Amino acid sequence: MKTKINEFPGISLSEKDFDQGKILFNFDELRGDFAWDTGIAIGQYLASLREGVILGARCSSCRKTVVPPRVVCEWCFRPMAEFVPLEDTGTVNTFSLCYVTWDVQRIKEPEIPAVIEIDGASPLHGIMHLLGEVDPKKIFIGMRVKAVWKPSRQRKGAITDIRYFAPLAEGGVK
Amino acid sequence: MTLLERDHNAPTAWFGNLPVTNRYTYGLGGERFFRAVKEEGRILGTHCPTCDWTYVPGTAFCERCLGELNEWVDVGATGEVYTYTLLFENYDGTRRETPEIVAFIQIADGGIIHRLGEVDPEEVDIGMLVEAVFKPKAKRTGAITDILHFRPL
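^ Those are the sequences you sent over. The predicted structure of the assembly is below.
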């Protein structure tokens, strides 16, 4: 087809067109309720969070401690021997400053998701969480942080039972 | 305790909800159709002169010859029950005492799927003539539910 198309039929819509009633539309909401089976290991992990403990699992043949815990070792495929309580302190492995919320709203103060290597787990093993009580400009990889827990009455067995991780010492330096 | 045993005090499931919403716009043909429902309480169709076929609801193009359709016609508010079904269950799965009657109402060469109302379920029949009952104008939003139901003529 050699003819150049200069004009496309149809109209693009803006949010204004909806607000001002220029366009008719149907709004619908899917019922996306779900229940995700925690399994043995994550169930135990969540139960421990409720008690204020970060739980890991240890493989005695690999001598590895992983967090969150799991029942099968990812390296040797043997059953994990034991669950072990870990420290609630750790080291920032990586982080990001996020200026949009999950539903794409712009925010002034960034959310700071980070991967935190948990003390007591094998090196480079950690969990993803948020950083708080910290100047975004002063965060660095290797910063020492500690979990800030919700009061025990408010904890319900969720990763959000930890509010965020805050710098451990002055400036978070070891 | 071995690791293969479940702690019965531990959470067994994580519950959540996916907030999925959507906004469906009716398109060029649908916009014109629902404007007429909302503002004039009329059901519009489109006539294809090539195929001599009248689409209800009105569409922007002919499905048979793919020609553009510009001939909008008021097809009236009456139609014929082409087929119907009695629903004894609500949307949430609970039982209903009196059934909801859903029918395909043939109008011109097309038709509308809608509820039947003001009728005894026993008396509904294929071929029955029915008319659309519109909501009062102030309550119409430009949706298929602007028609409350169809009732026997």
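Residues 39-50 of chain A form the longest helix (12 residues). The mean pLDDT of chain A is 90.

Shout if you want it in another format.
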